[in-house]
TrEMBL record:
Domain HTH gntR-type, residue spans: 11-78
Entry keyword RNA-binding: no
Upper lineage: Bacteria, Bacillati, Actinomycetota, Actinomycetes, Kitasatosporales
CDD domains cross-referenced by the UniProt entry: WHTH_GntR (cd07377)
InterPro entries tied to this protein: Bact_HTH_transcr_reg (IPR050679), Chorismate_lyase_/UTRA_dom_sf (IPR028978), Tscrpt_reg_HTH_GntR (IPR000524), UTRA (IPR011663), WH-like_DNA-bd_sf (IPR036388), WH_DNA-bd_sf (IPR036390)
SMART domains: HTH_GNTR, UTRA
Name under which the protein is recorded: GntR family transcriptional regulator
Ranges that cross the membrane: none
Length: 253
């Protein structure tokens, strides 16, 4: 990467630096290649490290870079699409579901979820934790909150915890007739737990997809799925659900 001193420009200096770095990524670096450290990059471009960090953070948000623990900043592969539609209605855990059950516990959910779940503030729910892997790397984690009233026949299931318990809860949930599901998407930042599960640094940009599953006129389950923003992009259409697409010719889960 050659040295380029930045001239005075009307746009923010970090934004101009982002443009220069983008051109370098396109011409000089390959996917997975590690960038020079911040000190060297700042010296080459004649900017403060704070300015450089702003540019790198923007490129990470746009999916051009990845920051990996113990590795550094690498050039990211092309983003996969997160398709969010409204026509398809299916319970989680069905035959075409790409998520993998990890664990299940009975706990009181965060207070902010009591209202959408239509439960009391101290009422415990089944919390199913699931993960999603694509091309060998974690791309999403999910917490699925299921009120006890949605799965009343769990008492006879001999699976007290773990993935087996999670699958049992999802099987019971599918006994209900799903009326509809509602999706909402927002940009967020990874907390400590999400960062660990997604192999990201805390504070890394993520896409948070919240899905309400409605049955019998009330919320039967609430999913909060966290996608890595550096590898996923949003696409909207009539396909429904949340899917990861690798391109027009191939889909993988």
């Amino acid at each position: 990467m050659g040295t380029t001193q930045l001239e005075t420009v009307p746009e923010p200096k970090y934004w101009h630096l982002k443009t220069v770095l983008t051109e370098a990524l396109d011409s000089e670096f390959s996917v997975g290649e590690i960038l020079p450290n911040e000190r060297d990059l700042a010296a080459r471009f004649g900017v403060a490290r704070a300015t450089l960090r702003q540019a790198l953070e923007q490129l990470e948000l746009e999916g051009r870079l990845q920051r990996r623990r113990g590795v550094g900043t690498t050039v990211a592969p092309p983003r996969m699409g997160v398709s969010v539609g409204s026509e398809q209605h299916a319970w989680p855990g069905g035959p075409h579901d790409a998520w993998h059950a990890v664990d299940c516990r009975l706990e009181v959910p965060p207070a902010a979820l009591a209202e959408p779940l239509v439960i009391g503030g101290d009422e415990a729910v089944h919390i199913v934790r699931r993960s999603r892997v694509s091309r060998g790397q974690p791309v999403a984690s999910e917490l699925l909150y299921i009120p006890a009233a949605s799965v009343p026949d769990l008492s006879g299931i001999d699976a007290p915890s773990g993935a087996a318990r999670a699958r049992a809860v999802l099987r019971e949930l599918q006994r209900l007739e799903l009326e509809r599901q509602e999706n909402a998407v927002e940009l967020g930042s990874a907390g400590a737990d999400e960062a660990r599960e997604l192999d990201r640094l805390p504070g890394a940009p993520v896409l948070v997809v919240t899905t309400r599953y409605i049955a019998r006129g009330r919320t039967a389950a609430l999913s909060v799925a966290t996608y890595r923003a550096d590898t996923c992009r949003l696409t909207f259409g009539d396909s429904g659900g949340v899917e990861i697409h690798h391109g027009p010719e191939r889909q993988a889960s």
